[in-house]
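#dry-run=false #mode=assembly
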Amino acid sequence: MATPILMLGAGRMGGAILDGWARADAFAPAELIIVDPQPSEAALAMQAAGAALNPSDADLAAAGTVMLCVKPQTWQEAAARYAPLLAADAVVVSIAAGVTSGAIAAAFGGRAVARVMPTTAAAIGQGTASLYASDPSARARARMLFEPLGAVVDLADEAQMHAATAVSGSGPAYLYAFIEALEAAAAGAGLRPDEASRLARSTVIGAAALLAQGKAEPSDLRRQVTSPGGTTEAALNVLLGERGLPSLLREAVGAAIRRSKELGA
Ligand SMILES: NC(=O)c1ccc[n+]([C@@H]2O[C@H](COP(=O)([O-])OP(=O)(O)OC[C@H]3O[C@@H](n4cnc5c(N)ncnc54)[C@H](OP(=O)(O)O)[C@@H]3O)[C@@H](O)[C@H]2O)c1
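#status=ok
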């Protein structure tokens, strides 16, 4: 691995990556350089363990790998500021939603680029990272960064990053929104708020854990808890109806894809 690894921006997602690396003991903190004007707790913890935080510009030329973890709205500003300070052979790994590898390579003086769409569960080693790079060495570099953080899905075509972003990058928020709605429905059905949240959360976590065992498809697990003419079937007739989950998720994923394309334009 070409180290040191320079992380430009260590907010919510960059911080989750730092936490995940620390948990997996993936890289020695002394191999990390973090640049962020408002360091998150994760960045400060990594600094306490030995990482360099906001060093002088001259120190950035040592980085072999550069992780671009600022918001898509500010990536160009960060690229303009830091690209001139980097080594010519530094590889750039970007997590900016929607921004193409061509645009990033151009802004970083033609350096090799990989794109990754991670999830914040990287912080606990259960992340999902969709990855694209046309350059095989940049792809290998990105794999080494994200394999310690959970599942890595290699995409063959960069255009698929929009769909991967819509399904996986944004996906955790869909599930949290589902849980919030289930809690609200439980409270609306007369359960105390604390009971409503315990029931909804523990049920979702248990159902996901069963799926994680990998012994059954979601459709099998659904059928196992759906007796003909029973309560679950009554609810699923609503949820899977014409304006139900399948069409809602198609629309939601479509909206996220459109936004991903706008952000990259
Ligand atoms: N959050 C997610 O779940 C998620 C999932 C997948 C991908 N991503 C991608 O991850 C990227 C970061 O998102 P985020 O949610 O982590 O954003 P965030 O919490 O705002 O983190 C970005 C950090 O970068 C800092 N920053 C801004 N400009 C900088 C510069 N020029 N140099 C160095 N640091 C700078 C910000 O500081 P200030 O606060 O001072 O601006 C902030 O601390 C985005 O491109 C997003 O598409 C996020």
